[in-house]
Amino acid sequence: MEKILISACLFGEKVRYDGGDTLIDDPIMAQWKKEDRFIVLCPEVAGGLPVPRKPCERDLETGQVISQDGEDFTDAFHQGASIALNLAKKHNIRHALLKERSPSCGVNLIYDGTFTSNKIKGLGITAKLLKENGINIYSEFDLDQLKTDLHEK
């Protein structure tokens, strides 16, 4: 049975910047969990960031990941992305279910770096690295597509 890399917050782990989670409550998730399909990781925590932590956004002009007060967390985000890629390779993972809008895991949208809640088209650091390495990336809003791609009923 094929493994799926999943953002830890979507799995229900309280690892978000605010100490919360964004558990996906869906029957297919319960089934995959029961089948032990998930490899669970929060790239930000894997990269050394604490819970809770300062909210961060990507500055698309510089490529940096910064907090609202200007602190640069880029290295931790890249380290977490590398750990995610290595984990995916270790488990021969071809599909990753990631948290939309996250500076690490955003699949279609990320915040624009102005801390005004404005979202723009873009990829998080981890999502980008996984995609560049041939891993199919999905957000929590793409469950049906992931199910189809895995040939699940």
Automatic annotation (TrEMBL):
Matching InterPro entries: 2-thiour_desulf
Source species, domain of life: Bacteria
Protein name: Purine-nucleoside phosphorylase
Species for this entry: Terasakiella brassicae
